[in-house]
Amino acid sequence: MLFKFPFYMPQTILLASGGNWRVLLLAFVLALLQGCSAIKLGYNKADDLAYWWLDGYADFSQPQSERMRAALSDVHRWHRTQELPLYAGLLLQGQTLAADNISAAQVCSLADAAQSHLNALTAKAMPAFTAVAVDLSGKQLLHMERQWAKKNATWQDDWLKPSGAEREKKRLDNALERYESFYGPLTPAQVQLLRQQVQQSVWTAPWAWRDRAYKQQLLLELLRSFQIKSPNPALAQEALQSIVQSWTSTTEGYGFEMRQRLKQEACANVAQLHNTSSAAQRLKAIQRLRAYAIDFQDLSTH
């Protein structure tokens, strides 16, 4: 409930660009926007924004563009009517929990529920995305590699090249922004707690870079294999979905141990910070969660 709660967070098949949990199917993240109208405007344009984001990597042909636009529109309609009401339900659970102290297990339970909805989104979009993935040309894959190279250079500038102290400050600033969007200004003691959490985190930039590069290479190898031999559609979808699932699994696959540790760490950190919050801060968090839930319920019917 204190994570940036994505109301339309597909996980892209065309970009395995890194990020701790969220890198798989549509490649589109609308993070928390300030204000109800901004949330509604962003969500209502989600399929168009997702298309332009993906096209920037794959440089779709005209037939591919038509198929992708149709697929995104279909997924968006499904997500609006079937998933948004469930997201609203999760936010209502968050409101109840926010009124009292919480445990790491309770936070992880909500996170697991959110992940199950992302998995459902993956499953819904996978057939259409597989159809486009098997049709990508060698020129398009080269274009994708060049786009990755640009993004990777920026990522390295942001996270590998800075000093440890600079990375720590950036992570602290990011965490502070997320928490204050829910609770309002944090106290000096709470800021110090966040600083300690960052300093004690198991996350490291070198690990994140290796994870990022591995995911990109794994996806690229699969897409190249589709070019060499036209795959059976069902087998291609199975292979692609297997890769997607492996990227977020905390029980199996490459790097699952670190993902598991990061998940447990995040849940514990959220609970620890929340349990220091004042009555006024908790009320603000509850009001924010309630506003988002109302927005999602409204969006699901319009």
Distance between the termini: 25 Å
**Tally of individual domains:** 1
Total strands: the figure is 0
Find the structural class using helix and strand composition.
mainly alpha
Taking the sheet with the most strands, its summary is: none
Any idea what the radius of gyration is? 20 Å
Low-confidence stretches: 1-36
How large a portion of the residues is in β-strands, by DSSP E?
Answer: under 5%
Structure description:
This protein has 302 residues and is an all-alpha fold. It has one domain. The protein has helices at residues 36-44, 46-58, 62-98, 104-133, 138-160, 164-183, 188-200, 205-228, 233-248, 256-274, 279-299. Helix 2 (46-58) crosses helix 3 (62-98) and helix 6 crosses helix 7 (188-200). The longest helix has 37 residues, at 62-98. It is globular, with a radius of gyration of 20 Å. Residues 1-36 have low confidence and may be disordered.
Please write out the topology.
Layout: H1 36-44, H2 46-58, H3 62-98, H4 104-133, H5 138-160, H6 164-183, H7 188-200, H8 205-228, H9 233-248, H10 256-274, H11 279-299
Helix pairs in contact: 1-11, 2-3, 3-4, 3-11, 4-9, 4-10, 5-8, 6-7, 8-9
Any key phrases for this structure?
302 residues, mainly alpha, 11 helices, globular, disordered N terminus
